[in-house]
Amino acid sequence: MEQVVSCYRHPDRETGVSCARCGRPICPDCMVSASVGFQCPSCLNEGRQTAPPPPRTVAGAVLAKRPPLVTIALILANVALFAAVHSNAALVQQLALNPAEIAQGQYYRLITAVFLHQALAHIGMNMLSLWWIGPAVENALGRARYLALYLVAGLGGSALSFLLLPANEYGLGASGAIFGLLGALFVLVRRVGGDLRQVVIVIVLNLVLTFSISGIDWRAHVGGLITGAAIAYGMVHAPRARRALVQWGTCAGMLVVVLVVITVGVVVR
Asked: What are the transmembrane regions (predicted)?
């Protein structure tokens, strides 16, 4: 005669099923589907507690293939503003970086200029560069850290432009932030011991073009490159025990440096 047993968690319920891990009888309410048979809730919780943590990148991001949502959102924001500019040309004058206007208190131009493009070729090249470089940096840093680096690097490029650009000239474009991503990519590849030659070649070629072609704001490129590299260095070298503190502290510290540059710009203007 088959012996009737009761669920160890619900003694009033008879069952013929046992946990595949501990062998204790479990009723349908306690059955959790596993790769082989069923497990009870207790064994499932124990398995979760003893499971190894997911692998992470040198910056602490979970190592997994995820869609580059932040990069896509940044591209869409740039394209949306580009479309708005073409339907209202006056927006370029209102949103572009202009030292004289910023010195009078229009500080919003320091960030709106980072998302502003006027020519189709300009936004096309910048968005292609963002799509080529952004996903790798986003996956390595994680979405929040990546977005912070992009924005602060873009602001760093704007700050140096504000400080050094002739008063009545205009600056615009995502190039400063993208140079920040190039600086971050260099730091990341160096940290993991990868081959730096391709990254160095890309950076050098872009700097040569920056200083060779008239009309390109080299100040934004250099400011973004330095800011992005500095932030990335703090992120990938942060000690694991204090990773978040050091990483966000680095972002905050570089933001303070950028604000100091802006303040100096206001004074000298």
From this structure: 69-87, 107-134, 146-164, 170-189, 196-214, 220-238, 245-268
